[in-house]
Write a structure and sequence with these properties.
Elements: E1 2-6, H1 12-27, H2 33-43, H3 46-54, E2 58-65, E3 68-77, E4 89-97, H4 106-120, E5 125-131, H5 135-143, E6 147-156, E7 159-169
Parallel strand pairs: 4-5
Antiparallel strand pairs: 1-2, 2-3, 3-4, 5-7, 6-7
Helix pairs in contact: 1-3
Bound molecules: coenzyme A.
Length: about 170
């Protein structure tokens, strides 16, 4: 049984733990430790995550199994979207499953939850940015109907990387 639960501001330390763990598991082997650390210090420090948790147009959700956090999702609407795509669009900013639960449909559960939420909010489109070298995630999004429509630059420490922008019309 996997439960999806809204993350409250008081769970910031749990959020920081899963955020750093999954980011390192996903990207640690293919980026320099310096770039990774610089990015994690900036993007996943407690004060930054607290600000994001308080943002009214963003939400975080945990995927829980026996009260253990095994994945998480961050979504943005309106002004909280990280690119000015469309004010009525819905962004999946982060969707991460811990390494030992990959491929067990936890990602799909979080993904379907996000799509349902976007539909309930009457959004016209769901979009996301994904590193061009993250083949596993790109294949997952393609399998779920997403199509690449643009790209943007993403700074990981000192490394300038290209993210594909992918979208699904609702
Ligand atoms: C992307 C991610 C969330 C997908 O979740 P997952 O748990 O690996 O995938 P699931 O088990 O939910 O897969 C659901 C379905 O998609 C299929 N699938 C999953 N990954 C796939 C891939 N790379 N290519 C093709 N099909 C894939 C599964 O086989 C399954 O199909 P089925 O329903 O026919 O059995 C997960 O891989 C992840 O957290 N990756 C690391 C973090 C990351 O890269 N996040 C994205 C940053 S933009």
């Amino acid at each position: 049984m996997i439960e999806i639960k809204l993350v409250k501001p008081e769970a910031v330390l749990e959020l920081q733990k899963i955020s750093i763990q999954t980011f390192l598991e996903t990207f640690g082997a293919v980026n320099s430790a310096l770039d990774m650390n610089q990015y994690l210090d900036k993007a996943m420090n407690v004060a930054q995550l607290e600000r994001e948790l308080k943002e009214k147009a963003s939400q975080f959700y945990f995927a829980l199994q026996n009260q253990e956090v095994i994945g998480y999702l961050k979504i943005n609407i309106g002004v909280a979207q990280t690119e000015p795509i469309d004010k009525n669009a819905f962004e999946i900013e982060r969707i991460y499953v811990v390494k030992n639960h990959l491929g067990k449909h936890v990602g799909k559960l979080l993904f379907d939850f996000a799509i349902d939420l976007a539909k309930k909010l009457n959004k016209n489109k769901v979009w996301l940015g994904v590193w061009e070298k993250n083949e596993r995630a790109i294949n997952f999004y393609q399998k779920n109907g997403f199509i690449t429509f643009d790209s943007h630059l993403f700074k990981l420490g000192s490394d300038i990387q290209t993210d594909l922008l992918m979208a699904l019309a609702l």
